[in-house]
Amino acid sequence: MRNSTLKSRFEDKFIPEPNSGCWIWTGAVWNTTGHVPRGKIVVGRKVQRLAYRVAYELYVGKIAKGLSVCHKCDNPICVNPSHLFLGTSADNMRDKVRKGRAKAGSGYNGKPRSDQITYNQGEANGRSQLTNNQAKLILTSSLPVSKLSEKYGVSRRVINSIKSRRSWKLLSSGDQTCDTRFVPI
Ligand SMILES: [Zn+2]
Predict the structure, then answer these.
(1) 3-class DSSP assignment, residue 121
(2) 54, 59, 74, 144: least surrounded by Cβ within 10 Å?
(3) Ligand 1 centroid to 76 CA: how many Å?
(4) Residue 130 DSSP symbol
């Protein structure tokens, strides 16, 4: 899909908010357990990406591997490129902690761990992390969802989201988004 097409579709899907200057995404929204909703946009056959990452690439430039796109305005639904900045996942998490958005029990220990996927289930639950390898094992396991949920200490909903490859795909390492390694396809 050519960038000009993507850009014109992108520009149909937000409205500028005059007070904050935020560009409020009005297109489809990606809802992930424990995360605030964020805009998403189709960028190719069966591929969707976070709208604000696409905004950054359309208006600012390429996002180097492993970097997160973060919001100066702390409004995850905003896609205004001038409100976005690049940071590491650790920057993003520090920023969240500073702004009081990180929840207790998310299991984050202050160090970026490149092979780890964090599921914040919205409740205090220290056992809410899976590694890429564990996610792959879950994908290929023939155990029932309830057993996998017990075995890995995550909710059935998380197991189901990994199992249903219709809606989720595991990204290769180094291609992480701001705060999750899974993207809808
Ligand atoms: Zn904004």
Answers:
(1) coil
(2) 144
(3) 8
(4) E
The rounded Å distance from CA 139 to ligand 1 centre is 36
Q: Is residue 144 part of a domain?
A: yes
Residue where a domain terminates, one of 63, 87, 111: 87
**Per-residue pLDDT, 68:** 85
Question: Of the candidates 27, 58, 87, which is a domain's last residue?
Answer: 87
What is the pairing mode between strands 38-44 and 68-71? unpaired
Between the CA of 95 and the centroid of ligand 1 the distance, in Å, is 15
Please write the tens of the pLDDT for every residue from 28-75: 988 776 667 889 998 888 788 999 999 999 999 998 887 888 888 888
Residue 130 Cα to ligand 1 middle (Å): 31
Ligand 1 center to 156 CA (angstroms): 34
Give residue 153's domain range: 124-182
Q: What is the pLDDT of residues 109-121, one digit of tens each?
A: 444 333 334 433 3
The first and second tokens of residue 158, run together, are 């998380």
